[in-house]
């Protein structure tokens, strides 16, 4: 068995981690996925359930196994898949296809993670997300879809399973316990308590005095409680013009940079891009709330997918340096390369980042230039111009 083959009780699944990169030694699953799959098989849960929700499946291991089990049993179970990540959704679709399952099948449905599903679930299977506020938000909205007969089962690596995550599930779903650890992973079992009445603080909002706006934030948005200090530095030097520009807020989060750019560039067309569905939803609400008479484009996509080459005057970006629980610079590097392709000659990429990441070196290598616009003890704002 090689690094892309997962042995399950019902056969081998071929799984790739996305985005696919040559030399990537990380697998598309972990021991928590394996523990969940073995438990589903041992308890024969899929033979007794008619409507299943899979939440926060990162690369499709859980969804692919469930489809494999259903194919073996010929059981017409409805499988809903909820994820915030565009990359995770594409990984799930591609891995289903590789394993011979049709992701467009009427029994498989991707559902909006900002909404309340319109059905009752017999089984909820989830991987514990890194953001526990996001977990609480989703689980509280799922309460209308559950009953005392619903099995709610999660999986997590022990190092990412703090006690407050279990308390959170106790307070939002009901009595919660864990399995014994196996391969440094545990299962999480919650019993639905219909008497609970948890409050959901999301979407939340905060005021930003610097640009005089109120910003709405869904639960899985970066800097959802307050503005991060890196973005604050860039806002202070935001470029402005009366020209008819096309400006992209890349990795937009709640859209604060795009909103500020719209204020300072009244004739510009804005494009907001993020691979987080909740980020795009937040940015759309914030832009429409402050500019009800201006149009903008909102892309739930991987980086700048969907933006035409040589079409953009300005890209603003606070690039992430991790994917899921893995620290990596490849996302930022991809954003820089795609920005170069989408910018017009003379167009500019403005980024803010931690000093220690050395983004100026990467930008100079790509663009042939990199200018320090502003800096603080921890962050730098750098401009690169497409020649």
Count of distinct strands: 20
Number of domains: 2
Mean residue pLDDT: 94
Q: Please give the share of residues in helix.
A: 25-40%
Secondary-structure-derived class: alpha/beta
Question: Which CATH-level-2 architecture of the largest domain?
Answer: 3-Layer(aba) Sandwich
Order of neighbouring strands in the sheet with most strands = 5-4-3-6-7-9-8
String of helices and strands: EEHEHEHEEHEHEEEEHEHEHEEEEHEHEE
* Radius of gyration over C-alpha positions, nearest whole angstrom: 22 Å
**CATH superfamily placement of the largest domain:** Vaccinia Virus protein VP39
Termini distance?
48 Å
- Number of H/I helices: 10
Identify the overall geometry: globular
CATH class of the largest domain: Alpha Beta
Written description of the protein model:
Helix 9 packs parallel to helix 10. The chain is globular, with a radius of gyration of 22 Å. 29% of the residues lie in helices and 27% in strands. The strands form 5 sheets. The chain has a 7-stranded mixed sheet, sandwiched between helices. A 7-stranded mixed sheet has the order 14-13-12-15-18-20-19, with helices on both faces. A two-stranded antiparallel sheet has the order 1-2. By secondary structure, the chain is an alpha/beta fold. The protein has 2 domains: 5-190, Rossmann fold; 204-385, Vaccinia Virus protein VP39 (Rossmann fold). Strand 10 and strand 11 form a beta hairpin. The N and C termini lie far apart (48 Å). It contains 10 helices and 20 strands.
């Amino acid at each position: 068995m090689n690094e892309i083959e997962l042995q399950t009780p019902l056969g081998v699944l071929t799984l790739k981690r996305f985005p696919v990169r040559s030399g990537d030694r990380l697998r598309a699953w972990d021991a928590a996925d394996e523990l969940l799959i073995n438990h589903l098989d041992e308890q024969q849960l899929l033979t007794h359930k008619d409507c299943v929700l899979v939440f926060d499946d990162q690369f499709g291991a859980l969804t692919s196994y469930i489809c494999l089990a259903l194919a073996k049993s010929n059981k017409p179970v409805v499988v809903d898949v909820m994820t915030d990540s565009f990359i995770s959704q594409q990984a799930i679709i591609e891995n289903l296809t590789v394993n011979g399952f049709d992701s467009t099948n009427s029994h498989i449905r991707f559902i909006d993670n900002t909404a309340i599903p319109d059905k009752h679930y017999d089984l909820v299977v989830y991987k514990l997300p890194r953001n526990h506020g996001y977990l609480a938000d989703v689980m509280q909205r799922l309460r209308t879809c559950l009953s005392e007969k619903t099995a709610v089962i999660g999986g997590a690596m022990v190092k990412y399973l703090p006690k407050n995550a279990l308390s959170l599930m106790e307070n939002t779903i009901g009595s919660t316990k864990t399995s014994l650890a196996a391969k440094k992973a545990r299962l999480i079992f919650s019993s639905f308590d219909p008497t609970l009445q948890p409050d959901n603080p999301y979407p939340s909002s905060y005021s930003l005095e610097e640009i005089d706006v109120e910003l709405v934030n869904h639960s899985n948005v970066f800097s959802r409680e307050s503005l991060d200090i890196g973005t604050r530095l860039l806002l202070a030097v935001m470029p402005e013009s009366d020209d008819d520009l096309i400006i992209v807020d890349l990795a937009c989060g709640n859209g604060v940079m795009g909103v500020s750019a719209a204020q300072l560039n009244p004739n510009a067309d804005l494009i907001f891009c993020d691979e987080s569905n909740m980020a795009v939803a937040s940015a759309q609400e914030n832009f429409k709330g402050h500019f009800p008479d201006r149009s903008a484009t909102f892309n739930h996509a991987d980086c700048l997918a969907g933006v035409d080459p040589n079409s953009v005057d300005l890209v603003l970006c606070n690039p992430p340096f991790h994917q899921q629980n893995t620290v990596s610079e490849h996302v930022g590097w991809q954003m820089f390369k795609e920005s170069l392709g989408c910018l017009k000659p003379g167009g500019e990429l403005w980024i803010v980042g931690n000093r220690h990441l050395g983004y100026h070196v990467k930008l100079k290598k790509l663009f042939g230039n990199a200018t320090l616009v502003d800096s603080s003890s921890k962050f730098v704002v750098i401009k690169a111009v497409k020649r």
